[in-house]
Amino acid sequence: MKVSIVKRNLVTIGKTWFIFMGSIFSLLSVILSFVSWEDVGINKTCNKIIIFVIIVASTLVVATIWICVFRRENMIWENASGKVTVRYDDIMKIAFPKKYKKNKIVVIPVNTCFDTQVDEDIARCDKPLVSPKTIHGRWIKNMIASGVSKEIIDSRIDEYMNLKGINPIRELSREEKKRGKTKCYANGTIVAMEGQNGITYFLLALSEFDENNRAQSSKESIVDCLKKLLSFYDGNGQGFEIYITLMGTGLSRSGMSHEEALQTIKSVFQLYSDSIHGEFNIVIYHKDKEKVSIFD
After folding, report:
1. Burial class of residue 176 in the structure, from the number of CB atoms within 10 Å of its CB (0-12 exposed, 13-18 middle, 19+ buried)
2. pTM of the model
3. What residues contact residue 20 under an 8 Å CB cut-off, 6+ apart?
4. What is the 3-state secondary structure (H, E, C) of 48-95?
5. Which residues are paired to 281 by β-bridges?
6. What is the predicted pLDDT for the residue at 208?
7. pLDDT tens for residues 226-260?
8. Which one of 67, 158, 207, 255 is most buried, counting C-beta atoms within 10 A?
């Protein structure tokens, strides 16, 4: 257990500690109403103080371990028809379950061209496209590993665009973009794609590639995308559980920290809570506990 994780969760640890300690002392009070200290052979005041210190210290240790190690989710908002939960997990494990449990929606942030070319060998390509370290890249690699080729993914994206009458807002020339797709769609455009074992993917156009194929986004565009996601889910989500990762961190280059990204999502969800008619799950990568607390 890292000290930085403990520091980030001090307030929650303190609250949990008082709850645990209060419960133990309440139980002890009930027991002592029937049996005295002397009845169990504890006569000296110093022994009673030692027991008190042991209870205080042990409940602090238990509270710290519970919050920092075992507690992996926290419900932050709920009404009659929906709720919002923050959890530590790996979105890829949720997106690619080994067997069917129930219908779920997983949001995959992609670039506005819906590129599907993942470039891992950067020494062999000019201006790499989708990074294998992003959610976008990891999703494509997992799709291919599950038997869905890049060509099939492209075909399904095109079919959905045609079905819904979604048109690009502009088309780049090969001088502007030498590799990858050239049709650019509006921020917040969503393509729904069926996965396996009850999973549906919402491919959400979040970031734009610049002339060097580097993803770019801003806090304003992320807020706009979240609003469009809520509206789309309200009309197409069928009340299924939906899972969304932090947006605006890492290679999206919005400049937001993990804490800022989480607060942005929570704020938008609370502001537009009337569009939430199901369970929204904000997924924070489980190895990022040092960067953000689910209890903030």
Report:
1. exposed
2. 0.87
3. 59, 62, 63
4. HHHHHHHHHHHHHHHHHHHHHHHCCEEEEEECCCCEEEEEEECHHHHH
5. 85, 243
6. 79
7. 999 999 999 999 989 999 999 877 655 567 888 99
8. 207
Instruction: Output the 3-class SS for 176-240.
Output: CCCCCCCEECCCCCEEEEECCCCEEEEEEEEEEECCCCCEECCHHHHHHHHHHHHHHHHHHCCCC
The pLDDT tens digits of the residues spanning 57-116 come to: 999 999 999 998 888 999 988 887 889 999 999 999 999 999 998 999 999 999 999 999
Give the mean pLDDT of the chain: 89
In angstroms, rounded to a whole number, what is the distance separating the alpha carbons of residues 178 and 172? 9
Please give the structure tokens belonging to residue 254. 């919005």
* Amino acid identity, position 41: G
Cα four-point dihedral sign 89, 95, 98, 102: positive
Residue 173 DSSP SS3: coil
- State the residue for tokens 């001090």: 10
How far from 273 is each of 28, 80, 240, 266, 280, CA to CA, in Å?
43, 11, 16, 10, 11
* Residue 3 scores a pLDDT above 90: no
Separation CA 26–CA 46 (nearest Å): 21
